[in-house]
Amino acid sequence: MIDKNNILIEVSNRHVHLSREHIDALFGKDYKLNLDKNLSQPGQFAAKERINLINGSKRIDNVRILGPERKYSQVELSRTDAMFLKIDAPLRISGDIEKSPGITIEWPKGTLKLKEGVIIARRHIHLTEEQAEKLGIKNQRFVSIKINGEKETIFNKVMMRIGNNYSLAVHLDSDEGNAVCINRKTFGELILNKD
Fold first, then answer.
1. What Å distances lie between residue 94 and 17, 32, 40, 145, 168, CA to CA?
2. Which of 2, 143, 164, 182 is the least buried, fewest Cβ under 10 Å from its Cβ?
3. Alpha-carbon distances, residue 89 vs 22, 82, 98, 114, 182 (angstroms)
4. Looking at the domain assignment, is residue 35 inside a domain?
């Protein structure tokens, strides 16, 4: 049973996903990221390791790495972060990094230049195939999410991300979360669009 009036809303701050090649380059061959805390999506975790992001004279320090390792390295920023770093990051689904800008990643032992991989993640909702079937929704279709409160808002074009290893939750970036004053556990109302 899915309570469409109580869908978990999570705000995702800037973070980095690293490939095995880039973990090795930054931390040493076969280095294993250290668990800081588990995230809501099964198997996903925030690592204790942090890196710095550099673009020319601009930098953001102490950026979280999320594990486990990915096939390709990816940096997810808010629009505010991208503007500060002077990077024209495209709005993309996580994993879609082709022809996106690069950036320099710094770690105390050295630096690594990503040729591409900097994106602003499209807002999305994770759910299982069973949940999607019950709702009559297909992968990569759009829904809307209503968030109540002092700055009540409806976010449109929330993309469905369907997979059996997902846990039901909406992911917004920090700009979107700040826009509606999310500072504690928050739930939203799922609005199914007719398309």
1. 10, 23, 16, 19, 17
2. 164
3. 21, 6, 12, 13, 24
4. yes
Query: What is the four-CA torsion angle of 40, 139, 11, 85, rounded to 10 degrees?
Result: 120
Q: Domain check: are 145 and 99 in the same one?
A: no
- 86 and 174 assigned to the same domain: no
98-132 burial, b for 16+ CB within 10 Å, e for fewer?
A: eebbbbebbeeeeebebebbbbbbbbbbbbeeebb
Q: Find the mean pLDDT for residues 105-112.
A: 89
User: Looking at the whole model, is its pTM more than 0.70?
Assistant: yes
Show the domain range for 136. 123-191
Q: How far is CA 137 from CA 42, 116, 124, 163, 190, in A?
A: 22, 32, 13, 12, 12
Please tell me whether residue 83 adopts helix, strand or coil conformation. Answer: helix
The answer to whether position 32 is within a domain reads yes
The number of domains in the chain is 2
Please tell me whether residues 90 and 54 are part of one structural domain: yes
Query: 168 by DSSP, 3-state: which?
Result: coil
Joined together, the tokens standing for residue 122 give 């499209």
Tokens of 183: 């500072």
Cα separation values, 153 from 12, 81, 188, Å: 18, 22, 10
Q: What is the dihedral of CA 28, 37, 72, 168, to 10 degrees?
A: 170
Which tens digits make up the pLDDT trace of 25-39? 999 999 999 999 999
